[in-house]
Amino acid sequence: MKKIGIIGCGTIGSELAKTIDKSKINATLICIFDEYLNTANKLANELKTKVIVSTTIDEFLSCDIDFVVESASQEAVRKYTKIVLEHDLDIMIMSIGALLEGSLYDELINISEQHDVKIYLPTGAIAGIDAIRSVKHMLSEVTLTTTKNPRSFEGAPFFLKNKIDLKKIKKLTTIYEGKAIEAVKLFPTNVNVAAILSLAGIGRNNTKVRILADPKSIMNTHEIIVKGKFGEMYFQIKNFPSPSNPKTSYLAVLSAIECLRSICDNRVNIGT
Ligand SMILES: NC(=O)c1ccc[n+]([C@@H]2O[C@H](COP(=O)([O-])OP(=O)(O)OC[C@H]3O[C@@H](n4cnc5c(N)ncnc54)[C@H](O)[C@@H]3O)[C@@H](O)[C@H]2O)c1
Fold first, then answer.
1. How far is CA 99 from its chain centroid?
2. In a 3-state reduction of DSSP, which class is residue 102?
3. Cα of 139 from ligand 1 centre, angstroms
4. Same domain, 159 and 222
5. Helix or strand holding residue 5 (H, E)
6. 176 CA to middle of ligand 1, Å?
7. Are 151 and 94 in the same domain?
8. Is residue 97 part of a domain?
9. What tens digit of pLDDT does each residue of 107-137 get?
10. Do 178 and 109 belong to one domain?
């Protein structure tokens, strides 16, 4: 049975912890860590299992674990993933946008090879990654169009330079068009899907991203167009946001749960 540690006790981390706690995943939750101790303590109090609330990453890594879930932030991926792998621990990463930065992805692959550990990237808030991976070498175009309610974009670094008042958007408005490599920096908590699409398909410089704000929208919609020598694919995924975090689609939470469940019970892997 895998012994799990979770970094990031927000929407995704809490749901995962509660799912393990209810024995719906063949694993034991050992420790949790959050940059806000109160957040981790609150989660610990909601669980039947007695878990260790780590106050530092060193304390977290000294726990008896063999698998880490990152459900925190791009910053957490940058800060902790290398040391997690160097401690011979497998990791499941949710803040996938960080992996498009510089040479981080290649560095992590190298470390994981040296330490014989694995990195898992759930499909998150979209579908079709398996199919896109299958035609990876035949692609000519991958375009992601993400539409969310303007309030989902609040706090994104994009608005530091672009003075758009999200509250004044009254109709469907294109707020960004560019490459995935740039989109994940400007909207770090909104378009992790652009990162997984890039890694599965034609890369961070060739994956095109459009971001639209729709004040009437109650769903997070991702439309993906994929073209190449194999033919064409079109996916549309309309997700309800998580009740506790409008930036995170509920499907992303469910995808994290299903990814961890299948890792912990690998007698059959459907669709991978
Ligand atoms: N892959 C996908 O499709 C997908 C979809 C949705 C969200 N995400 C990403 O998953 C991550 C978690 O999402 P969420 O909805 O649970 O977010 P959340 O904001 O609800 O929770 C994140 C938690 O992590 C903690 N945290 C942040 N940075 C930290 C750090 N450096 N060290 C320790 N703790 C830290 C925060 O205090 C918070 O409690 C986010 O980065 C989000 O962008 C990915």
1. 10
2. coil
3. 31
4. yes
5. strand 2-7
6. 23
7. no
8. yes
9. 999 999 999 999 999 999 999 999 999 999 9
10. no
If asked whether residues 138 and 108 sit together in one domain, one would say no
Q: Domain count of the chain?
A: 2
Q: What is the mean pLDDT of residues 137-159?
A: 96
Among 254, 146, 125, 135, CA closest to 200: 135
CB 55 within 8 A of CB 9: no
Asked if 102 and 170 sit in the same domain, the reply is: no
Q: Which domain holds residue 210?
A: 129-239
Are 55 and 112 within one domain?
A: yes
Percent pLDDT > 70 in the chain is 99
120 CB within 6 A, ligand 1: no
Ligand 1 atom 2 nearest Cα = 124
Residue 246 resides in a domain: no
pLDDT tens figures, 51-98: 999 999 999 999 999 999 999 999 999 999 999 999 999 999 999 999
| 159 belongs to a structural domain | yes
Q: Based on the domain organization, do 55 and 154 belong to the same domain?
A: no
Cα–Cα distance, 189 to 149 (Å, whole number): 14
Where in the sequence numbering do the catalytic residues fall? 222
For residue 269, is it within any domain? no
Ligand 1 pocket residue status of 239, Cβ below 6 Å:
no
**Ligand 1 pocket member 54 (CB < 6 A):** no
Whether 27 lines ligand 1, by a CB cut-off of 6 Å, is no
pTM summary value: 0.96
DSSP notation for 128-183: -HHHHHHTGGGEEEEEEEEEE-GGGGTT-THHHHS---GGG--S-EEEEEEEHHHH
